[in-house]
Amino acid sequence: MTLSRAARYRGLILLIVINFMMYAGFFMVIPLVSVHYVQTLGFAAVTVGIALALRQLVQQGVSVGGGVLSDRFGGRSLITAGVLVRAAGFASLAFANTPPFLFFAMLLSALGGALFEAPSRAGIATLTTEDERARAFSINGVGGGLGMVIGPFTGSLLLEFGFSTVALAAAACFALIGAMSLLLPPIETATDRSRLGFGLRLALHDRPFLIFTALLMGFWYMWVQLTISLPLAGERLANAADAVRWIYGVNAGMTVILQLPLIGFLERWLRPLSILILGIALMALGLGMVALADSFPRLIGCVIVFTLGTLLATPSQQSVTAALADPRALGSYFGVNALALAVGGGLGNLSGGLLIDLANALQAPALPWIAFTCIGLASAIGLMILGNYLQQRRATAHLVGVQQR
After folding, report:
1. What is the pLDDT of residues 211-258, one digit of tens each?
2. How far from chain centre, in Å, is Cα 9?
3. Are 142 and 359 in contact (CB under 8 A)?
4. Among 65, 233, 293, 398, which residue's Cβ finds the most Cβ atoms within 10 Å?
C-alpha cells in the first residue's frame, strides 16, 4: 500500500477496535439464540441448529464474493455496507417468533457478515508486514476476546428486559460500527484491481491452499460448538443465563489474559502451522472431556482446555492463510478460505443440534462429544500430513516445524 507507516497503524488500530465491537455485538445475542428459542419458545434444538447453520453457511459461503469485491473496489466500502446489513438482520431477530422469520433474520445477518468478513481479515494482512502479522492477528484476537467478555455479559443483563431488547442492542452496536468504518483509510486488498475475478481464479487453482482450507473445516466445526452445544450443556447443568455468562466469560477472559503471552512464547519454539495443529488437538480434547462432565464446574474445566486450543489455533490459522495467499489477491484468498467456516461451521451447528437431540432420545449423552473429538483429531492429523509436504517446499518451509534457535 502507498499509506505511510503512521496511517497504516491508525487503520490497523481502528480495524482492531471495530473487530472488538463486532464480537461484542455478535456475542451479545447469538449465544442466547439456542437458549431463547429452545427453552423459551419451545423450538426443537435441531430447528435452531438449522437456523444457525444457515447463517454460518451463507455468511462464509458468500464471503468469497465479499473478498472478490474487496479486491476490485477496496475493503472500506465493503466493511461499511456489511455491518449495516447485519444491523438490519439483528433488528429483525428482535421480532422473529416463528421458524421462517428466524431463518430470514439469520439470512440477513449472514449476508452482512459475508460483505465485511473477508475484507476485515485481509485488511489486517494488508496493513501489516510479514513480521508484524502474527502479533497483529493476536492483538486482534485479544480485541475479539474482550468483545466476547462484554457481549455475553451485556446480553445476559439485557435479557432481563426480554430477548428483543438484546437483539435491538446488538443491532445498534453494528450501526455504530458502520459510522466508525467511514474513518478507515483506503484498504487495497489486491495489487491487481483491473480484472474482476482474477484473484478468485488464482485461489481456486492453488492446490496446497485449497487442501489447507478443507482441513480447516474440522477446526471451525469444533469452534462453533461454543454457540450451540456448550451453551446447551451448560443449561443442562446450571441456570441458562448464568451458564452462558460463565462459559463465554471464561473463554473470553482467557483470551484477553493469555492470548498474546501464550502465542509469543510458543512462537519462539514452534512455527505457525505446528501451533495450529497443537491448538486443534487441545480443542478436540476439551470437547471430548465434556462427555465425562457431570457438574457445571467440570464443564468449565472442559471449556478451559477447549479455550487453550482456540488461543493457539485462531491467530495461527489466520497467519498461515496470509502466508499461503498470493499477495496479488489477499481479499479473494481470505474469501475462499472462509469456505472452511461456511462448510465446517455450518455442519457443526447443524449436527451439533441434531446430535444433542439424538443423544437425548437414545439416552447416550456422550455421543455428541465423542463425534466432535473424532472430527477434530482427523483435522489435526490431516494438517500434519500437509505440513510434511509444505516443509519440502522452500516457499512454505517457514510455516512448519520448530524454530531454529
Report:
1. 999 999 999 999 989 878 888 888 888 766 677 778 877 887 888 788
2. 24
3. no
4. 233
Q: How confident is the model at residue 84 (pLDDT cuts 50, 70, 90)?
A: very high
String of DSSP letters for 258-276: HHHHHHHHHTTTB-HHHHH
Is the Cβ–Cβ distance between 346 and 355 less than 8 Å?
no
Calpha distance 336→348 (Å, rounded): 19
3-state class (DSSP) for residue 402? strand
First to last CA, the chain: 33
What cell does 291 get?
A: 462427555
Sequence-separated (6 or more) residues with CB below 8 Å from residue 288: 369, 370, 372, 373
Decide: 199 and 68 in contact? Cβ < 8 Å: yes
Angle among Cα 274, 280, 283 to the nearest 5 degrees reads 145
d(CA 351, CA 46): 8
Give the burial class of 207: count Cβ atoms within 10 A of its Cβ; 0-12 exposed, 13-18 middle, 19 or more buried: exposed
DSSP structure class, residue 186: P
DSSP string, 116-158: HHHHHHHHHHHTS-HHHHHHHHHHHHHHHHHHHHHHHHHHHHH
Q: What is the pTM of this model?
A: 0.75
Instruction: Mark 260-298 as b/e (b = at least 16 C-beta within 10 Å).
Output: bebbeebbeebbbbbbbbbbbbbbbbbbbbbbebeebee
Q: Please give the single-letter amino acid code of residue 75.
A: G
| DSSP symbols for 197-256 | THHHHHHHT-HHHHHHHHHHHHHHHHHGGGTTHHHHHHHHHS-HHHHHHHHHHHHHHHHH
Residues 187, 71: Cα–Cα separation, whole Å: 9
Please, are residues 291 and 366 in contact by the beta-carbon 8 Å criterion? yes
How many other CB atoms sit within 10 Å of the CB of residue 197?
Answer: 13
Q: Is 392 exposed, middle or buried (0-12, 13-18, 19+ CB in 10 A)?
A: exposed
Decide: 240 and 39 in contact? Cβ < 8 Å. Answer: yes
- Residues 266/312, Cβ–Cβ less than 8 Å: yes
